[in-house]
Write a structure and sequence with these properties.
55% of the residues lie in helices and 4% in strands. The protein is mainly α. It has one domain: Chitosanase, Chain A, domain 2.
Length: 201
């Protein structure tokens, strides 16, 4: 995807994550979804390792940044299995949301770090998955990107994730149009989201 198409895909997903087209780099709050704090433009969370990945990378770039004091607590959360209620624990993250917002507002390096980690963890895998099933349009790629942001691809969610959606959708037919395949893909995604045992989706 060219930079303009990537930006458009990010803005589309940002609407679902933050409610508007203003990139939510400074967003940080508890949503009550058992993932701790949800932060940044992509919805990185303290309970699923990606917020940890952002701060870990940022501290490599800005070693003296005050948000680095949360790294030990975030690293400790990574030792629990995905789905373990302990991953929701924020008792050792006092002031984290305020610090995330402050760092975003005062250092553009933190914003760039969010983008770089988001591209590495979500955009690039989404593009690889899209290519693997013959999706070439920017709209199709944007849908794969949104799917991977919302549901993951590393089995953080056992019953709803991109590999499972692809498996249930089935392969793209030899002469099947991309529009037809994406309709089946989105129908499967919607059905899984409706039946998921929780209120997150």
């Amino acid at each position: 995807m060219d930079p303009e198409a990537v930006k458009m895909a990010e803005l589309i997903t940002n609407v679902f994550e933050n409610g508007n087209t203003v990139m939510g780099y400074a967003a940080a709050e508890r949503l009550g979804d058992c993932r701790g704090y949800t932060c940044g433009y992509i919805g990185f969370t303290t309970g699923t390792n990606d917020a940890y990945a952002v701060i870990k990378e940022y501290i490599k770039r800005q070693p003296k940044a005050s948000i680095g004091r949360y790294l030990p607590a975030l690293q400790n959360l990574t030792k629990y299995d995905f789905g373990d209620p302990k991953r929701d624990d924020t008792s050792h993250l006092k002031g984290f949301a305020k610090e995330w917002k402050k760092t975003t507002c005062h250092d553009p390096v933190f914003i760039q770090t969010q983008l770089d980690v988001g591209h590495s963890m979500y955009l690039q895998p989404a593009l690889k998955y899209a290519a693997s099933v013959g999706i070439h349009s920017n709209l199709g790629k944007a849908i794969f990107y949104d799917t991977i942001v919302q549901h993951g691809w590393q089995y953080v969610e056992k019953y709803i994730n991109l590999p499972r959606i692809l498996e249930l959708t089935g392969p793209k037919g030899k002469d099947e149009s991309e529009a037809s395949y994406m309709t089946r893909f989105l129908t499967t995604r919607r059905q899984l989201a409706c039946c998921y045992p929780g209120k997150v989706w």
